[in-house]
Amino acid sequence: MIDKERVLIGSEELFLKAGIKSITMDDIARHLGISKKTIYQHFRDKNDLVTALVKKRLADDEAMLCAIISDAGNVMDEMVELTKCTGEIFSRINPAVLFDLQKYHHEGWMLYLKFKTGFMVNIIEKLLKKGIDQGYIRPEIDARIIAIMRVNQIELGFNSSIYPHNEFNLWDVQLQLLNHFNYGVCTIKGITVLNNPD
C-alpha cells in the first residue's frame, strides 16, 4: 500500500514544476503510478492534500531554521547559514505555487501567512536582538519593525509585477534583497564578518 508521505512528495514535485492549479489528481496518480482511489484513501480532495503538504513543508522549514538559530552560536555564522538555507528554500519555489495557494487554497494560504507573520518574524527578531547583544547589529534599530520588514521584503521578491519572472531570476532578486538587508542592519564589526566569512 502506498503511504501518505509518498503522495505528498510526488504531489510536491509536480506542484513545484507547474503550480498547484494546473495539476490534477489524475496527474498526481499518473506521476506516482497509482490510482486516484489510492490518493483518496489519504486525502478527501485536492485542497486537503495541498493543506497537508503546506503543513509538512512549513514544519520541515521551521525545523531547518531552528537548527540554524541556536542560543549559543555566533549571530554572523547564523546569518551566513540562513543565507544558504534561504537559497535552498527559494531554489525550489515556483512563484505560481504562492499565487495558486493564495487564490485557490485558503486554508493552506492561512497556514503560510501564520508561519510568515508568526514564526519567521519571531526568528528574525530573535536573530537581530542576539546580533545587537553581540555587537554585530546596529543597536538603534527596532528589531520587531525590521523583522516584519524583512519578511515582507522576501515576499516582495516573489511579486512578478515588480520583478517580472521573464526578466529576473528569483534567487538573484532574493540575494540582492538579502544583501541589502544584511548590510543595512550590521555594524562595522558585522560588515567586516560579512565581507570575510571565513
Strand content: under 5%
Which sheet architecture does the biggest sheet show?
Answer: none
Q: Runs with pLDDT <50, length 5+?
A: none
Order of helices and strands: HHHHHHHHHH
Mean pLDDT over the full residue set? 90
Instruction: Label the CATH architecture.
Output: Orthogonal Bundle
Distance between the termini: 49 Å
Description:
GO terms for molecular function: DNA binding. This protein has 198 residues and is mainly α. It has one domain: Tetracycline Repressor, domain 2 (Orthogonal Bundle). Helices cover 73% and strands 0% of the residues. It is built from 10 helices and no strands. The longest helix is centred in the middle third of the chain and has 29 residues, at 106-134. It is elongated and about 60 Å long. It starts with a helix and ends with a helix.
Summed up:
The protein has 198 residues and is mainly alpha-helical. The protein is built from ten helices and no strands.
Identify the notable features of this structure and list them briefly.
198 residues, Tetracycline Repressor, domain 2, single chain, mainly alpha
Write the layout of secondary structure elements.
Layout: H1 4-18, H2 25-32, H3 36-40, H4 46-68, H5 75-91, H6 95-104, H7 106-134, H8 143-156, H9 170-185, H10 188-195
Helix pairs in contact: 1-2, 1-4, 4-5, 4-7, 5-7, 5-9, 6-7, 7-8
Organism: Mucilaginibacter rubeus
Pfam families: TetR_N (PF00440)
Domain HTH tetR-type: 1-61
